[in-house]
Amino acid sequence: MAQHIFQTEVSELLNLIIHSLYSNREIFLRELVSNASDALDKLKYLTVSDDLYKGVVFEPRIDVSLDVEGRTLSIADNGIGMNEQDLVESLGTIARSGTRTFLKRLSAEAKKDSNLIGQFGVGFYSAFMVASRIEVTSRKALDERAWKWSSDGKEGYEIEEAAREAAGTTVLLHLNDDGVEVADRWGVQGIVRRYSNHIAYPIFLSWDEATRDDKGDVKGKERKTERINEGTALWRRPKAELKGADYEEFYKQISYDGEGPLFYLHTRAEGALEYCTLFFVPKKAPFDLYHADYRPGVKLYVKRVFITDDDKELMPVYLRFLRGVVDSEDLPLNVSREILQQNKVLANIKTASVKRALAEFKRIAETDGEKWNEFIEQFNRPLKEGLYSDWANREELADLVRFKSSAVEGWTSLSAYVSRMKGDQKFIYYISGGAENTLKASPLLEAYKAKNIEVLVMDEEIDDIVIPSLPKYKRVSGLLDKDGKEAVQEWELKAVNRAGADTELGGREDKDAEKRAVPIIEKMKKALGERVKDVRLSRRLLDSPSCIVADENDPSIQMAQMLKAMGQSGGVPEVKPILEVNGEHPLVKSLALAEDEGKIADTAAVLLDQALLVEGLKLNDPADFVKRLNRLLSN
Length: 635
Ligand code: ADP
Known about the structure:
α10 crosses α11 (369-389), α10 runs parallel beside α12 (394-400) and α17 (511-528) crosses α20 (597-614). The protein folds into four domains: 2-231, Histidine kinase-like ATPase, C-terminal domain (Heat Shock Protein 90); 235-367, Ribosomal Protein S5, domain 2 (2-Layer Sandwich); 403-495, Rossmann fold; 507-634, Heat shock protein 90, C-terminal domain (Four Helix Bundle (Hemerythrin (Met), subunit A), Up-down Bundle). Helices cover 37% and strands 22% of the residues. A nine-stranded mixed β-sheet has the order 1-6-5-4-7-3-2-8-9. A five-stranded mixed β-sheet has the order 10-11-14-12-13, with helices on both faces. The structure holds adenosine-5'-diphosphate. Adenosine-5'-diphosphate (ADP) binds at residues 31, 35-36, 39, 77, 79-82, 90-91, 121, 123-125, 169. The site of adenosine-5'-diphosphate (ADP) has 16 residues, from α2 and α3.
């Protein structure tokens, strides 16, 4: 038997692990299972790539074996195995470069940051958190001899020749008191399911189960073995091998959704960065979609080993409805949360994934109207959030979001709106701030309808927040400009309830109307005083007598009322509407000759209040409105 002492770095690392990772000791099993899986990967690769190994008959598996009475737990694989020299190099030294600097830094820090150790990857040595002694028996593939490495994790280790029937490695843990606490049948099974369910090889657990006689008394015990992982890293399998039903089953398992997904997106990236992503879009929005403490639905794996399912940074917030998996080859296994957030590899995966998801949404929008409608019914609003928050993908998102319209039934896109525009129309018009039917009935739309100008109906609260942040809609025209580049056309979005949105409605044919209106407007301004910002003759009204609009740079009246209701108007000066009147309407005309101050005041106030009402706004003094209206009716 040969005695060895640990390389200094190993002793330092062991010391740190035992004292700092304490609260997270169950990860030892993840580390050992992951090592076993790597060993299987390596041998599998050799059997397909190296003639020497062609004859190896090999059915990869991992066996976890529990002996509660004997206080041991073993993890065995039939993978590549280690010879004597491998054992010395792998389990007595740390080969990684930078270890010394890393450990120095860690020891210098007053707080032994377990995340930092995690980032480094503690691997095999973490098993000393739960074991007072570890024996590793290993036989390298194609070798005849086997070796046993054993250590109490203090000063050093011994290596001696041993017997092992076939190639592979068995790590036998003599459990300490902490180990005994985690290592019972359900504990072990739970940890494996949690961290290693999708390891691509079958993992079996053996344990002793008590047998009972007819009376229910224990009469002996029986050794049982059961497979405990699902075992298919589905996202790693080639798309061609997988059927819709495979994806559906997997989706149900990870999402706890009883229904299948609406669609999914499976990608494997090779090259500078190697990773797989598999994303699902649910049929129904997750119940907590609009809760601040929603649970993210995308899990992070590194080389098939589960890392976390609770990282909100993995995907942008507006895509929080996605379910699925990101599995990277280029991240360290023990990557910590803090590290994740600044990790370049992950940032690149995220950027590429968002682009792919948006491209897939676009493809569905273009090819499968029915599915797309289902998608929009559920996820239009989160996409609109993206319009506001993801400036890098703004143009793609502007093409994806949908709106109602004065011209067509159902949903429409900005692009479809633009295609329907008449030759010389300069702006994309929209009306916002109310329910769909209120907006569609608004007097503000009369002249647009008469002129056949389409107006988008934005009836979602979020529209008032995101649309002002999208001043222009851009579209590649498909035509080439004079420099041979694809010409980009752009259109400004204009709210019809804005003072300046009527320029395309044309002037008045009857020039005298302007003149005739002057005394009416004067009387109304006087009567309404501070309640309005201005009174103007309208170009937008045909049937209705009056409407309100907001001044170019003011928030809309609806928005102002909303902020007030939310108690957020503090410091914002009160927004007053501009009242526009229809000079051709009898009620307005009647003011031209009116002398009676009381009647003028009543008419002016009713014209203002009804314009507010029709936009779905609240009146400050409804009783006053009713009183004035009744007075006018009884005259
Ligand atoms: P890491 O896995 O991050 O390299 P570990 O400390 O977990 O670090 O393992 C060190 C090395 O020991 C591994 O790189 C591998 O070469 C070897 N090793 C560990 N477990 C096994 C195993 N079950 N079979 C073969 N080799 C192993």
